[in-house]
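Re-running the complex after MR caught last week's input typo. The corrected sequence lines follow. Everything else is unchanged.
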Amino acid sequence: MTEMPARAKAISELVDRMLNGDRVALARLITLVENRSGPSPVIMSRIYPRCGRAYIIGITGPPGAGKSTLTDRLVARARSEERTAAVIAVDPSSPFSGGAVLGDRIRMQSHFLDPGVFIRSVSSRGSHGGIARSTRDLVRLFDAFGFDLVIIETVGVGQTELDVMELADTTVVVLVPEGGDAIQVMKAGLLEIADIFAVNKADRPGAGRMQTDLEAMLQLRGNEPWVIPVLLTEGTRDGGTDALWQTIGAHREYREAQEARSQGGAERREGELLDILDEELRRRVRWKLAHPPGDGLAAIIEAVRSGTVDPYSAALEILGDEGRMAALVEAPDASR
Amino acid sequence: MTEMPARAKAISELVDRMLNGDRVALARLITLVENRSGPSPVIMSRIYPRCGRAYIIGITGPPGAGKSTLTDRLVARARSEERTAAVIAVDPSSPFSGGAVLGDRIRMQSHFLDPGVFIRSVSSRGSHGGIARSTRDLVRLFDAFGFDLVIIETVGVGQTELDVMELADTTVVVLVPEGGDAIQVMKAGLLEIADIFAVNKADRPGAGRMQTDLEAMLQLRGNEPWVIPVLLTEGTRDGGTDALWQTIGAHREYREAQEARSQGGAERREGELLDILDEELRRRVRWKLAHPPGDGLAAIIEAVRSGTVDPYSAALEILGDEGRMAALVEAPDASR
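Corrected-run output:
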């Protein structure tokens, strides 16, 4: 075996320790992957063969629907069956609200001393598609580590959150009776991603009505192999969470039966290759913009910064020059 | 003048017609920019010098808060002052719910025959940061065309929507009394982007309480030059929309006074250059993955598709080979 560079060796050892159950190594790898630093694809290629065992549950819905509380209840159910669980909370990062988010997480401290539970926030605000990618890699880290369940919980409900939910095997959309009517659910794109609806805070007026409306709307879809259930839950009083847990299990069985019949995934894997290449290219270009090689690139960037050339014209100039393009996407280390 | 290629000439003519007030040309350019097709940076570099006149208002908040109705009211206010308005509705695309979204837009038909109003949905689901970029380019098209106001309205409220709101000069966050407490607003990152809060559907119980809670929370921020107002509105009965309209005007005056005092924008412009380069690189790599040049790339892609090589290992192999990288980011036309 040829000698590895020191950093590659350190990462390789870290991965080995993680795969042997070392939680400190897991935490360090999470940080590396979250920072989207250079070794991230190296880490992921090492752990990839160990992935595919965990079951992934997505919990989404508008702010204030009670998603954290329901997540907490599901973790308790998993633990009562001796299954381990990792929770990834997708939070908009916020220097101002950071404390509040953490404060809210205090509820999850019922699991704080339990080694079978791991909780992590992802908060890469403004990272242009980076949240979905970070979350995917984090899911895989937890999967490779050996967690039975990975629960992804979002704070908001928008485009990024819909994308993140594509990672889940079973997606639970949590609503509250007053949060708008069934049409709003359709408008927000929630109908397409839901495997299960939970009308939470079901002690409030309008819960039954919302359930009926959603069921009526779902019937318009005609004969689907999986009929999306609409459950009533009360997270704070642990009401309906047994039924939710069992329904997630039923959807898992349905899904596994479906998968046994289908092949495929070629498109998904190729799309993932594109995402990984794109992320690395973006990283390299960002580095080159900050450290422009001496071939006229520095002058263009300065013109954009000072406002004498608009960004589109500058991009067209750079993109039209093959040599400059090649320099732009060279690995930073090779350019020194 | 040297002869331009036919396509470049057609685009140049289209831009000229648009800048002279041709709405058909505007609609065609919108489609080109929305599709993120090749000429998009060319179009944008042409119209960039004509931008900077329009005022941009963002309307966001959870599904069902009544954002469309409030937007409709604001458009009516603008028109009553003889100002033109373009509305960009950021909707998750959805083959199933498409009809419902359009149906909801029927309300906006009060402005349908008014040439001073233009309404357009952006719905590029799953485009990895593409929504914020498409929306930015669309805002610029409307700006260059000469609309006085551009209103960006989101359907959901999540990471993408927070990013989109960075385009707005004034951001209005619309909430409903029952949509969760003030803590939820903080958790969802809404406090940081709000210039104005509108507690809509203010006839419902809890509206006054929510207003008080938000104001109390905002006081924790200490002395800020702009004190974020919390207004009560009733979009469906047009209640409070005059006050909202005037408050937007007050924020505009505040902002313009601030801007007169500050320079800058260098970081923003450089970030935009990175975004444009990144989008074009992604487009080129996607094309090359679908049409691999005959240098071993085809074999790697096939291995990923069939699952014999994982996407991370394949990416590392491609990224480690400078020649292959250069081929990957060459313009598709040059590779034939």
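None of the earlier attempt is carried over here. Residues 94-104 of chain A have pLDDT under 50 and may be disordered. Chain A touches chain B through 92 residues (CB under 8 Å).
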